[in-house]
Amino acid sequence: MTLRIYLSGEIHTDWRDQITAGAAGLDVAFDSPVTDHDASDDCGVAIMGAEPDKFWHDNKGARLNAIRTRRGIENADVVVVRFGEKYKQWNAAFDAGYAAALGKSLIVMHGADHQHALKEVDAAALAVVETPQQVVQILTYVQSGKLP
Q1: Which of 22, 59, 81, 95 is the most buried (most CB within 10 A)?
Q2: Whole-angstrom Cα distance, residue 131 to residue 148?
Q3: What residues form DSSP beta bridges with 81?
Q4: Measured distance CA(124)–CA(84) in Å, rounded
Q5: CA distance 115 to 85
Q6: DSSP state of 116
Q7: In this structure, are residues 122 and 94 in contact, taking their beta carbons and an 8 Å threshold?
Q8: Chain center to CA of 129
């Protein structure tokens, strides 16, 4: 049976590509938010009309993106949320909380420098890792029972 994985969070590095490439031999299907930063930010005004106030510009985009994000998390068996080094991913914290509230299997990925700041998010996860390779190893173990 195909394991459905939603890859959420930081969009400025290739961590998603590393996981999808590493999981190539597994029976998995991946979904994610829109990772084109400009398209994600501007989707609301592009579809529903311009906003002179940046708050409402961002609000429209956030609401449209939430439709995709909620669907992806709700349909997932496993949700992987990556917190990057450079930017504050407040949306990733929401996604982790939403996945946990739905009872989804949650894997959180971040560096050691975020350990204290994300302690509550980490507490909701079934696994906390630092690398995409560790995510692939978890998925491999879940599907086959094989250790790396």
Answers
A1: 81
A2: 14
A3: 8, 108
A4: 18
A5: 12
A6: T
A7: no
A8: 14
Contact 110, 82 (CB under 8 A): yes
Q: How open is the CA angle 106-92-24, to the nearest 5 degrees?
A: 55
Q: Which stretch of DSSP H or E encloses residue 72?
A: helix 54-75
Residues 130-143 have a mean pLDDT of 97
User: Residue 87's pLDDT is what?
Assistant: 67
What lies within 8 Å, CB to CB, of 22 at 6+ separation is 132, 133, 135, 136
Query: Given this model, what pLDDT does residue 102 score?
Result: 97
CA distances from residue 120 to 91, 98, 145 in whole angstroms, order as listed = 15, 13, 29
Cα separation of 29 and 26, whole Å?
9
d(CA 62, CA 66): 6
Six-digit token string for 63: 């609401």
Burial of 44 (0-12, 13-18, 19+ CB in 10 A): buried
Q: Is the pLDDT of residue 30 over 80?
A: yes
